[in-house]
Structure prediction request, 231 residues.
Amino acid sequence: MNYVITAPEQASVAVAGTEQRFPVHRIYCVGRNYADHAREMGSSGREAPFFFMKPANAVLPAAAGQTATMPYPTLTSDLHHEIELVAAIGKGGSDIAVADAPGHIWGYAVGLDMTRRDLQADAKKLGRPWCIAKGFDASAPIAPITPVAQAADIAHAEIWLKVNGQTRQSGRIDQMIWNLAEIVSHLSRAWRLLPGDLIYTGTPAGVGAVQRGDVLEGGITGLTPLHVRVA
Ligand code: MN
Prediction:
């Protein structure tokens, strides 16, 4: 291709146990998908799932066994952690039925939906978009992806986050309000999903602030853990 400027680098994530990488196309995120977190953010009941996005190059991929360094972002003094199960789409489609959704998922990973909570609160108050609160550089740390074929059943897996060794978030994947198949189905009615799309599926209760120097360790039973240091 004869581009007029240098083409941007393809964002990608490590694949567990290999040198191969998963190319990232888009990043979708689900809001308020665990009842206890929905309550802590001030809502109740089973509202329809809602989505927001981060740019593909917001991924901060951690190599297996390594601690990724996340620079403390500008413009905030209230950087929050949200530990999440990430689904990696391997087969695209629109109007995907819930029963067919598992066949579109290539793999799973542990991810963090890092959030400028103060800017998100301002955006909510003013009815403005969340981009600046959610879609900033390095806002999507992610551990290596485990292919579905090699992953244990994660439907009832534990999900947790420790900050400096102290447990901050702890839940189970089966506490999601909308399960993974339902999320894929809903998303695919709004967008034609494509290979390379990542879906951050929401966080359990216990979100909170991190400071420069903090070390975050996130895990989901059966998946490669995520280690991030805030610098
Ligand atoms: Mn989130």
User: Anything to note?
Assistant: The CA atoms of residues 17 and 86 lie 18 Å apart. The chain has a mean pLDDT of 96. Residues 12-230 form a domain with the Fumarylacetoacetate hydrolase; domain 2 fold (CATH 3.90.850.10). The chain has four helices and 18 strands.
